[in-house]
Amino acid sequence: MKDIKSYVIGFLTCACMFLIMGQTMSQEQIEHMKTMATQMKNAGLMTEPAGKYQGFADKGLIYLINTTTGQLFYQTKERKDKRWQQIIKPNNLYGAPMYTK
Question: What is the pTM of this model?
């Protein structure tokens, strides 16, 4: 019985090693992926990085922030049209207040 048990353990260990070795990428494969991404970016398929804009809401207003430039927008409704109005301009630490109480 011990003999079968060691064969099963050996077989499972070998199977796990094949799976682990198959998941690693060689340096050549990594470079190939980088060149493909560069070609897609140069072709205009990847124009903006993911996560550039983040949205949030506060007190019933919906805001949108550009995480790379710091621009801040809020959503307005004009004649059944939804538009984004800019609050803070790019790279400006303090924008004009939207409203005062």
Answer: 0.40
